[in-house]
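Office hours follow-up: a student asked to see two folded examples consecutively, so here they are.
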Amino acid sequence: MNEERESPSRVRVAVVFGGRNSEHAVSLMGAGSVLEAIDRTKYEVVPIGIARDGRWVLATDNQTYAIESGRLPEVDDSGAALALPSETGSLIALKPGDIPSSLGRVDVVFPVMHGPFGEDGTIQGLLEMAGVRYVGSGVLASAVGMDKAYMKLVLRAAGLPVGPFVVIRDRDWRLDRSRVLKEIEQLGWPVFVKPARAGSSQGISKAHDQESLEAAVEAAREHDPKVLVEAAIVGREIECAVLQSLGDTGPEASLPGEVLVRGEHEFFDFEAKYYPDQMALDAPARIPEAATETLRAMAVRAFEALDCEGLARVDFFYTPSGELIVNEINTMPGFTSLSVAPQLWAVTGLPYADLVDRLIQLALARPAGLR
């Protein structure tokens, strides 16, 4: 760390990961890839972990970022505690019994975070208050993108096709369950049940009847009291990444890719996404050229509908009749070097290390505050 600080001309990047949610481990896996790929001759890097209890700590050398022997990684909270005071942009180290000491100003934060209290506009709001530039979408786009119910409303208002769905709020499930169940029955069977504000396929179930539906809703409610129930759509899962341009010429879309689930997974669940050899990405997707161009244009429209910045991944269903339906948009998609969005950019001609660099440059180029 001391050697890195001897070069004051380098941009100082804080890579933040972890967090208080069920996607804690996914965040660490992405952060590990970013920390490995980032150009240390160009950037001074400060790795910061957010423990499960919300404490910010300076990452230690023995921090593990990968799944090892089936065990998910967690933030090592033995490092120095940190604070980010409002309107200063400087990191403060807080050691028990010592006077707080400054670690210096951060030029840009790369929040490799997923789920509530990270991807949902909360950390973005904190960084806005501190006047620190950061990678990715702002407060509004992050919040809307995290809440699948509002996301679908915004996408539908922008003229993009989305599948039928029902939102279950906590009060309705507790006090008016029979009405909610009748609404869901109108979607037809099967249905997918998922937490409204979670990702990485956490808490998602496929329900084939009312009995399995109620169990699926309770499973989703373990992650979020607000639940989304979606009609099952028959189609191939095609995904497309979107990236803001450096020259402010508008967002651009990657070549699309098809997600192929291996083994006995009924859908693209957590294990299929993050455990070895459980999925494959066929990119570019083997769909007609006209469908490819339409899908890429729709991905950009979704990005702009939410007023996204930096990057996103838009997921589609491509039906047997050739119809494209938007499933969802992720404002901070899985970001290991083997995750879908980075793989799609690699196929399109932008390698992972260059993608990381471009995201940092995009963050540095945009003004802090309202824009």
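And the second, which I mentioned at the end of office hours:
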Amino acid sequence: MKVLVVNCGSSSLKYQLFDMTDESVLAKGLVERIGIDGSVLTHQPAGKDKTVINADIKNHSIAIKLVVEALISAEHGVIASMQEISAVGHRVVHGAEKFASSVLITPTVMQALEECIEMAPLHNPPNILGINACAELMPGVPQVSVFDTAFHQTMSKKAYIYGLPYEAYEKHRIRRYGFHGTSHQFVAQSVAELMGKDITELKTITCHLGNGSSIAAVQNGKVVDTSMGFTPLEGLVMGTRCGDVDPAILPFLMKKEGMSVEDIDNYINKKSGVLGISGVSSDFRDIEGAAEDGNERAQLALDIFAYRVRKYIGSYVAAMGGVDAIVFTAGLGENSVSMRASIMEGLEFLGAEICPERNNVRGKAREISVDGSKVKVFIVPTNEELMIARDTKLICGK
């Protein structure tokens, strides 16, 4: 069974084609600048050179058509015809309370996705465009929707209800939803396999750390809490997002600075986080470089980030009544030796201690805790696309 995984943004489209007999990637690629001058498709067949295709890509339907043409091309294709694609799996950001797992896409599901647009106005519309484009080009091929929010739907009300009048939840479904769910699920399952345990036997804290960051407490295979909330703004300080702040700061700033609603939204989503603190960049690599050169604000940004992650880890240990494994994933979590060390410093009282030699690695799945550590610490590179492909295979039953 071959599964095409599609992740549509407003002007981009990422894809991977999997052979699910061995979960190998046959090809992957990226379409950029959809609907914008200078649009391009970069196609990478497994074991071959990249192919760059410049074209006038006006919409997602044309983008999908070009992707399929690249996949079946005599020169750089990896399948004989599009009939070899058994199913398509789509990343969809928000499923609200409507979806607690991945689902086969039907007209009823599409209607529900439309209703979720107000929850993720920047992300769900292009996700829907991608689904419609595939349906148009590949009629009859089953499609599956895999949600960023679904894995977190096992949280109880005590974890997801905010301290607002209950009517806000009843009328508008204002609650904590959580994001990066596909990554947290993949990593939690992977670390259980590395430990030779069943996921239902473990208490795991998964740390998805990158430009966007979130942490999840996974007990017996189910999420009991997560750091992102109604939107991906809540939780940790991130690349450009402020994370947790006193909400009274927002009207205060709006009055003092004469900001509109749009201004303050831009301020807390795109100008804050480690970018706003450091004044250097939203890229942690740039900030780490500046800190090494003696930039005090850059070092402060790194210290704040590590401190916040450490606090969340501690709170989730309390929420679960213990922890068996702490896992680092995503760009920063997988690759920053110094950040992992900073986060873990001070958590020795939990019985979690990392080995400097084992920690000195980037992007490889491995245990980094010392021998005999009561709490195991791991790096697990995330693979959201493979998780989507697995769910798609499971649902389509081929």
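Two things to take away from it. The radius of gyration is 22 Å. DSSP finds 15 helices and 14 strands in the chain.
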